[in-house]
Write a structure and sequence with these properties.
The protein is mainly α. The protein starts with 7 loop residues before the first helix and ends with a helix.
């Protein structure tokens, strides 16, 4: 579509920001019980996952140390998939793990691409 040509960087920045915000929301729910309580008690693994979601999600949103934050988020998502979902079935549609599987590969892409525009990393380069 011709009218969308030239907006790749803006679309990527929006993808990074929205993905970071949604990931951050998982950490907020786990650690702060907001906007709804987390449905189970936190064990050390869930607490660590919540901390990673909160910290890495924030860093991805603002675009600070984006590559390492996204890499850690991708790894945490891969572990989360196999620990919480993959034991039930290897197929995401059958085990409810579509979201975390998508996060894993989305954050891996962000880790390889970097922050892009509208980011602290980009501002520091200038």
């Amino acid at each position: 579509m011709k009218f969308l040509d030239g907006y790749t960087e803006q679309a990527y920045a929006l993808l990074r920001i929205v993905a970071g915000l949604l990931f951050l929301a998982h950490g907020v729910q786990k650690l702060l019980n907001f906007p709804v309580p987390f449905p189970m008690p936190l064990n050390p693994m869930l607490t660590t996952a919540g901390a990673i979601e909160l910290i890495a999600g924030t860093m991805i949103v603002i675009g600070a140390m984006t590559r390492p934050a996204a890499f850690v988020a991708s790894g945490m998502s891969a572990v989360g998939y196999w620990v919480a979902h993959g034991t039930q079935s290897p197929f995401p549609i059958a085990n409810g793990g579509e979201t975390i599987a998508l996060y894993c590969f989305l954050f891996l892409f962000i880790a390889t691409r970097g922050a892009g525009i509208w980011s602290a990393d980009g501002a520091m380069k200038k």
